[in-house]
Specification:
alpha/beta, Rossmann fold, binds thymidine-5'-diphosphate
Length: about 210
Amino acid sequence: MPGLFISFEGIDGAGKSTHIEGLAQALRAQGRHVTLTREPGGTPLAEKLRALVLNDPMDAMTEALLVFAARRDHLQQLIEPALVRDNVVLCDRFTDATYAYQGGGRGFDLAVLRVLEAWVQALPGTTALRQPDLTVWFDLDPVIAAQRLAGARVPDKFEAQPVEFFRRVAQGYAERLAHDPQRFARIDAAQVREKVWQDVLAAVRQRGWLA
Ligand code: TYD
């Protein structure tokens, strides 16, 4: 089986983490080699950039440049080599998060994000870009997400944003889906956890990647 690249998206509090872990186990149980990773992060350098992006105040362009710098290192050092080894790469967030958070949430210029995306995700020798084979989007009302996050832990820079910010982020995700519906599986994350999990499994099974 060839390598696969699956990303997971949603606003903070949408509850993607346990399902990413669960999917990794399900795939490993069927003999697949799984690389579990996240953005920003996934390599020593990208994890340093993550700490800056999540904690230090900065303008939206700086944020966008740092997340794409982290992504470049992550692709080169970890994701592309894992795909060459036919791994399934499960990535907690990818470029849709940049469109949703920096584009939607912060209102940063989408045209600039498209340029950065084209530079960072270019596949050598082709005109194609590296993109996930599937993006699982945990769609949740920002009010419910805020209730779930409340008191859970010390919020980072994004988690501390008001609900209106997350409405724009959620709108950003909706636009990404509209732009590329084939790539997306939209999961109703307001359902009970077991139902959400069944929907995640169904999305992967539907594509023939899990029995
Ligand atoms: P998150 O994935 O929610 O991890 P944790 O569960 O540890 O909090 O945190 C990453 C944060 O970074 C999240 O608030 C979204 C933000 N982010 C961006 O703003 N732009 C990006 O391009 C990416 C990948 C993440």
